[in-house]
């Protein structure tokens, strides 16, 4: 058997009050894609920081480059060919692609000034971008590149240092389906070239598509391992949370009622020549599916008053309402959990309590001054009710995991007694365990008579959570499917404009 590229043996790391890693062992072979899965807080990030030399382990052995070490420095990890492509891309927008790939390692001109030789830099980077199938050149300004294109720049940077091991951390969290397919093809080409890849993601379908082996962490320990033939959704979910996937989905408690949230012939600025109609009834979860660009988010933003509605009617409990702004929607009990919680849903530098009370400060102030005690009581109530993992409600939102950040956004609206609530991609970037809690919260709202509209690109989620599904195509609702008619094929037929 060939010697592995990497061996982590018995790695342990503790912080005050927390055992982040407890005797974790990992092996990566040449030309192997290892899927590394686990809930937020399972220890994945800490383990990768140990490999990258950022964190020094308390115990264990690191076998890399034919040598055994107790720990690595960042420089040693880079010298041994370990490269990271992080979820949060680190780009210099004022530079071109070549400069970003070679930052700190530029080709220099001869002479006393030692100026950067831009032509030589671009010549070095061009073949790397060609290898990745990039549709832009080394002189392309990064400020004009899409998220997917920027990711190729990050991967080219890894290839430029002759990386033998590449760690991809949630690489598709902001990519479309076609861009994801392209990335998975690049992963396959890296494997074929002998590069070892550690692929970290919450999107288990991608693990099925690309991984040769799966290692699961839970509570800082190895929960189990799956060979290629054993990699499938149910087995990975059991390793991650200790129960089957179907346990995440709760059936409705009662039949839906009348009223709720209804839009009739609503026209958005994204599709001014099309209109959409749908009805989310109290007591049900209405899924809203469709391909990227079909108009789902524009419809949600028009309902909430963020984007102007060009035409049509919005009704709450059977009565037309005028919504010209988010303030109008909030005043009427119609709330939106936005697609990008960090950009549009939270003020990251504020505490849990401050975020929860933000749209209702009048209820926590007197004579124009905020009452911190009242604010904290409201924050603590939602922290406890939603089981937000934080010691107290004064913790800043930026320090929370994705799932807990999403709960803070939910806590804001739950404290205001919603009549209807729109969830736009409610579990994007959230681990399986937190997904189950968010699904339960959505079902609990529906059971209390709230009209719930859920927009999701995750087909498994749409089919598992929804009671009915409305499918959009180019700005209009192409059809609505009942639970008995729900399948991936039936949703996709409507999404591409075919008949159900």
Overview in brief:
Helix content is 32%, strand content 25%. With 500 residues, the protein is α/β, with parallel strands linked by helices.
Q: What does it look like?
A:
This protein has helices spanning 44-51, 74-79, 97-101, 118-131, 147-160, 177-192, 204-210, 233-241, 296-303, 326-331, 341-345, 352-357, 372-385, 402-414, 432-447, 459-465, 488-495; strands spanning 6-15, 18-28, 33-37, 59-64, 67-69, 82-85, 165-169, 196-200, 213-218, 221-227, 261-268, 276-280, 285-290, 309-316, 319-321, 334-337, 365-366, 369-370, 420-424, 451-455, 468-473, 476-482. It has 500 residues and is α/β, with parallel strands linked by helices. The strands form five sheets. It has a six-stranded mixed β-sheet, sandwiched between helices. A hairpin with a 2-residue loop joins strand 1 and strand 2. The chain is globular.
Helix share, percent:
25-40%
Structural class: alpha/beta
Class of the largest domain, according to the CATH hierarchy? Alpha Beta
Chain-averaged pLDDT: 87
Q: Let me know the number of strands.
A: 22
What is the CATH third-level topology name of the largest domain? Rossmann fold
How would you describe this structure in keywords?
500 residues, 32% helix, 17 helices, Rossmann fold, alpha/beta, 6-stranded mixed sheet
Describe how the helices and strands are arranged.
Layout: E1 6-15, E2 18-28, E3 33-37, H1 44-51, E4 59-64, E5 67-69, H2 74-79, E6 82-85, H3 97-101, H4 118-131, H5 147-160, E7 165-169, H6 177-192, E8 196-200, H7 204-210, E9 213-218, E10 221-227, H8 233-241, E11 261-268, E12 276-280, E13 285-290, H9 296-303, E14 309-316, E15 319-321, H10 326-331, E16 334-337, H11 341-345, H12 352-357, E17 365-366, E18 369-370, H13 372-385, H14 402-414, E19 420-424, H15 432-447, E20 451-455, H16 459-465, E21 468-473, E22 476-482, H17 488-495
Parallel strand pairs: 3-8, 3-9, 6-7, 7-8, 13-20, 13-21, 16-19, 19-20
Antiparallel strand pairs: 1-2, 1-4, 4-5, 9-10, 11-12, 11-14, 14-15, 17-18, 21-22
């Amino acid at each position: 058997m060939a010697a592995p590229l990497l061996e982590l043996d018995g790695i342990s790391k503790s912080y005050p009050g927390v055992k982040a890693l407890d005797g974790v062992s990992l092996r990566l072979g040449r030309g192997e894609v290892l899927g590394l899965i686990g809930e937020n807080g399972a220890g994945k990030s800490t383990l990768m920081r140990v490999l990258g030399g950022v964190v020094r382990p308390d115990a264990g052995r690191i076998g890399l480059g034919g040598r055994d070490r107790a720990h690595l420095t960042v420089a040693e990890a880079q010298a041994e060919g370990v490269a990271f492509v992080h979820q949060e891309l680190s780009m210099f927008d004022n530079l071109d692609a070549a400069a970003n790939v070679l930052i700190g390692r530029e080709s220099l001109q001869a002479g006393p000034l030692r100026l950067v030789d831009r032509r030589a830099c671009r010549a070095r980077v061009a073949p790397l971008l060609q290898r990745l199938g990039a549709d832009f050149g080394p002189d392309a300004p990064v400020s004009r590149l899409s998220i997917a294109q920027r990711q190729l720049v990050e991967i080219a940077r890894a290839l430029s240092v002759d990386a033998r091991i590449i760690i991809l951390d949630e690489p598709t969290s902001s990519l479309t389906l076609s861009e994801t397919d392209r990335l998975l093809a690049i992963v396959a080409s890296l494997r074929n070239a002998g590069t070892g890849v550690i692929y970290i993601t919450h999107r288990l379908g991608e693990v099925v598509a690309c991984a040769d082996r799966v290692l699961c962490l839970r509570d800082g320990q190895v929960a189990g391992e799956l060979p290629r033939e054993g990699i499938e959704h149910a087995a990975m979910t059991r390793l991650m949370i200790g129960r089957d996937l179907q346990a995440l989905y709760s059936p409705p408690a009662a039949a839906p009622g009348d009223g709720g949230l209804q839009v009739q012939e609503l026209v958005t600025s994204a599709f001014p020549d099309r209109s959409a109609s749908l009805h989310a009834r109290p007591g049900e979860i209405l899924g809203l599916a469709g391909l990227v660009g079909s108009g789902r988010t524009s419809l949600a933003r028009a309902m909430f008053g963020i984007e102007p509605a060009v035409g049509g009617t919005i009704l709450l409990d059977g009565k037309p309402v005028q919504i010209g702004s988010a303030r109008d929607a909030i005043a009427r009990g119609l709330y939106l959990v936005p697609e990008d919680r960090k950009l549009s849903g939270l003020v990251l530098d504020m505490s849990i309590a401050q975020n929860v009370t933000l749209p209702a400060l009048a209820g926590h102030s007197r004579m124009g001054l905020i009452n911190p005690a009242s604010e904290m009581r409201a924050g603590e109530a939602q922290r406890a009710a939603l089981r937000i993992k934080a010691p107290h409600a004064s913790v800043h939102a930026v320090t929370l995991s994705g799932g807990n950040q999403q709960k803070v956004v939910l806590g804001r609206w739950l404290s205001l007694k919603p009549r209807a609530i729109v969830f736009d991609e409610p579990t994007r970037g959230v681990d399986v365990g937190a997904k189950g809690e968010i699904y339960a919260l959505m079902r609990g709202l529906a059971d209390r008579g709230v009209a719930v509209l859920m927009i999701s690109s995750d087909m498994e989620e749409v089919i598992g959570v929804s009671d009915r599904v409305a499918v959009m195509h180019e700005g209009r609702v192409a059809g609505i499917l009942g639970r008995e008619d729900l399948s991936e094929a039936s949703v996709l037929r409507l999404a591409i404009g075919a008949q159900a």
